[in-house]
Design a protein that fits this description.
Length: 371
């Protein structure tokens, strides 16, 4: 497999969403005589959907896909996650696959397809179905406070997997991707990337992750501090940054986000992991964030900093902190509502209903005559 990656090409490949379609959507709203601002933020969302679809009237969102990238992280050895590092990610993957995880239940409820991609889960190669692990780059990753997460070649391979998956989803007709992740220790890795790219210290980006206490928070903060020292020298090379202090799943998500933008496939970011990858992708193509929307804030300080840098406003605030694509999936009904409010068929029915003849009611005399 050729793992040569030309990051510079994304600067020209990624175009801006269609502003003409956005303006046409606004004009359509005015033609429908809807009160200005009456639909609140759904109006802005409908305009964004028109722009990323390049169409007005807006097409209803009908082929959404939840895409979860999975990988274990060596930094979890320090106990920075409340979840057990040994086998924790594998158990979460299995819960999604057997349908018991919240994201799987919600995907069924909202009619979205669900796909899990194993990039670096610390489990045997035959632990999951072939379609889940076919893109695996390695088993687990290095402890980023003292060593690289993956090699340069592995980072390039994972990035290429992400771009290939974006092409695959676009070719399948997916019209919206709800992006999530599965990985013990992933919020620590994400905090390192956000801290490095936003130029902040460790304490400013260290959150509670899976619900850690103060003592573990201090261990996590120290790990992020040491990892930031390793990240800063490679800030000018995004693939080197992902190899040093990211991981195979982070590299794949970054590649996916960039290629999805190039293929004009809109994406909803779930939490701090996808947001950290979005920051890396923004360094490669400044137009790419226009193809994304943020789902929610989770209380992670790194996430708030990332969204501020990306100039993205979360779609809802349900205080979902578990990740795994749940926050992104909860944004799906909002996006469907936004598209439906300006969809052509709602206002121009193909077959007007025929006049309805009311049923004849019996007279009082007729009713008395039956007594």
């Amino acid at each position: 497999m050729d793992t040569t990656v030309d990051l510079d090409m994304f600067a020209s490949l990624v175009e801006r969403p269609d502003d003409a379609a956005r303006r046409a959507a606004e004009e359509r709203r005015q033609e429908l005589d809807l009160p200005r601002g009456g639909l609140g933020r759904l109006e802005e969302l409908a305009g964004w959907l028109a722009a990323v679809q390049g169409a007005s009237p807006v097409r209803p969102v009908s082929a959404a896909k939840v895409l979860l990238f999975a990988g274990d992280h060596g930094i979890a050895e320090l106990g920075v996650s409340r979840l057990a590092p040994a086998g924790g990610t594998a158990a979460r993957v299995r819960a999604v696959l057997d349908g018991s995880a919240p994201v799987a239940r919600l995907a069924r409820r909202y009619g979205a397809e669900l796909r899990v991609v194993d990039l670096a889960v610390d489990a045997p190669e035959d632990a999951f179905p072939e379609e889940v692990s076919v893109h695996r780059v390695r088993r687990g990753s290095g402890r980023i406070d003292r060593m690289d997460a993956v090699t340069a070649e592995e980072a390039a391979r994972a990035f290429a997997v992400g771009t290939a998956l974006a092409d695959e989803e676009a070719d399948l007709g997916t019209d919206l991707v709800l992006l999530g992740d599965l990985g013990v220790g992933s919020t620590t890795v994400a905090a390192v990337l956000v801290g490095a790219l936003c130029g902040t210290d460790a304490a400013a980006v260290t959150g509670r992750g899976s619900g850690i206490d103060d003592k573990v928070w201090m261990v996590k903060c120290a790990a992020i501090r040491d990892s930031l020292r390793r990240a800063r020298p490679v800030l000018g090379d995004q693939l080197a940054l992902l190899a040093a202090t990211g991981g195979a799943d982070f590299a794949a998500i970054t590649g996916f986000l960039l290629q999805a933008a190039a293929r004009k496939l809109p994406v909803v970011l779930d939490g701090v992991v996808s947001a950290a990858c979005a920051l890396v992708a923004q360094r490669i193509s400044f137009r790419a964030p226009e193809w994304w929307r943020a789902a929610t804030l989770t209380g992670e300080p790194a996430l708030a900093k990332a969204y501020d840098r990306l100039t993205l406003t979360p779609l809802h605030d349900q205080q979902v902190t578990m990740g795994e694509g749940v926050g992104a999936l909860l944004a799906l009904p909002l996006l469907q509502a936004a598209s439906d409010t300006l969809a052509e068929e709602l206002f121009e029915p193909a077959h007007p209903a025929a006049p309805r003849t009311p049923p004849r009611l019996p007279t009082a005399a007729e009713l008395l005559g039956k007594l």
